[in-house]
C-alpha cells in the first residue's frame, strides 16, 4: 500500500503546484470579446472594406470593366491589411484587458495524462472530475 500512497502524494503535490500557479489567472469576459469580434466586427469590416477597396480600384484604374480582377484584388488587399491592423488593435485594447494571464502555464507541473484531462474538461468533452471542482 506504500506505493499507492507515494503515487497519490506525488499527484497531490503536482495539483498543489498547479493551483499555486493559477493564482492571479482570471477570465473577465474573454469569450464574449472573442465572439463579438469574430461574429460581428470581422465579417462586417471585411465586407465593407472589400466594397470600398473595389470602388477605390475602379476610381484608380479609370473604371474599365476589363480590369475587374484588379478591382477585386484592390478590395481584397484593403480588407486584408485593415483587418490585420484592426485585429492587432482589438487584441491590444479589448482581448488583453479581458483576461489576466498570470506568470506561466498553469498545467506545466501536471503530467501529460492530467493535462489532457484538463483540456478535455475545458473543451466540454467530458464532465468535470472531482479534482478540478475544488
What does this structure look like?
Helix 2 (30-60) runs antiparallel to helix 3 (68-95). By secondary structure, the protein is mainly α. 67% of the residues lie in helices and 3% in strands. It is elongated and about 75 Å long. The two termini are 26 Å apart. It has four helices and two strands. The chain has a two-stranded antiparallel sheet with strand order 1-2.
Q: Estimate percent helicity.
A: 55-70%
> How large a portion of the residues is in β-strands, by DSSP E?
under 5%
Q: Report Rg.
A: 24 Å
Could you tell me the mean pLDDT? 76
Based on secondary structure, the structural category is mainly alpha
Number of helices: 4
- Give the strand line-up of the largest sheet: 1-2
Shape: elongated
Biggest β-sheet description = 2 strands, antiparallel
Straight-line distance between termini: 26 Å
Low-pLDDT sequence parts: none
Order of helices and strands: HEHHEH
Q: How many distinct beta strands?
A: 2
